[in-house]
Amino acid sequence: MTSEEQIVNKEVISDKQGIAMIILFLSGSTSIFVTGLDAKKDLWIAIILAIFMVLPMIILFARLHYIFPGKDLFDIFEICFGKLIGKIMMIIFTWYTFYWAADVLNNYGFFIRTVSLTKTPKIIYIIILGILCAWGTKAGIEVLGKWAELFLIIFIISICAIVSMLIPNMNFHNIEPILYDGVRPVFKGAYSVFTQPFVQTVAFTMTFTNLKRKKSSYKVYIVGLFLGAILTFMISVTNILVIGINEATNAYYPSYVTATRINIRDFIQRLEVIIAIIFTLGGFIKISILLLCTCKGMTKIFGCKDYGFIIIPITLLIVNLAYFQYDSVQHYFQFNTEIWADYFLPFQVILPVIIWIAAEIKKKLGKV
């Protein structure tokens, strides 16, 4: 069997595996890094609103898979827009996932350096995690799917256990009064949650090529979104209830700070290490998916059939960019809270909508 055939065979995933990957992709990073804090005490309302905001985009992503079964977003570019414009869009989206992968890798590097190994250079962490993600990508999306399916069980049990142990520390006055600052902060917070992480599921349009059934895409995206949103809601609201909006806003990693409050009879404590572990393992899925998107994009741009041989070179480039991308953790959070949403909105919303319109026209004309 050739390496091309091996890669293709590894891209067939079940509905459960696809759902598990989306859940971890959405809630893995938010298990430690909370978005939507502009909504302040009404963060819970902002998250619910963001779910309804992103639902049309989720259905749109699933629709693209339904119209073009067995094709990824890079293939759809050429089908809808021809070779020239298609190649240009491939380059744009490949750069997007390349930069995004480095950004996520930076998040984990800064996290480890901030909360534990403060003396160790950041490059050590990102090299180690980069190598692990390269291995995961090389193994193929089916292996990533099986790993996600297993780890999701551990992830959910850990989150539920930690939230349960934090119940005595919860103060529901931290989310009162409702809408005290009006609706504008709620919409601002909802927009933040919408762009990061909910609509980031656009990455799966570049990786889900062979779901087992044609209609599976709707089930995978919608169920994955709702379950991922429930976990995101649990984590975010727990942070506000336990440490309050002021401390959550001032902390770089509020979930880690929240977990430090667990102390049951001076016996069960210091469980923030669990948060650190599940955050890092969840990041493994996210970075591996983004690395896979980048590698697939590069092979489509240059007309190659096998992305396996460029995984290591692309990983090294991502690690290199991650090292020089941000001067400090303050710079990283400034970009991700103030700039990210508007900077990447074209990739997450505007261009996918244009592609969907073109796909529907092609389908109506009977050209697909």
UniProtKB/TrEMBL annotation:
The keyword Transferase does not apply. GO terms for biological process: spore germination. GO terms for cellular component: membrane. It holds the Pfam family Spore_permease. Signal peptide: none annotated. Belongs to the amino acid-polyamine-organocation (APC) superfamily. Spore germination protein (SGP) (TC 2.A.3.9) family. This is Uncharacterized protein.
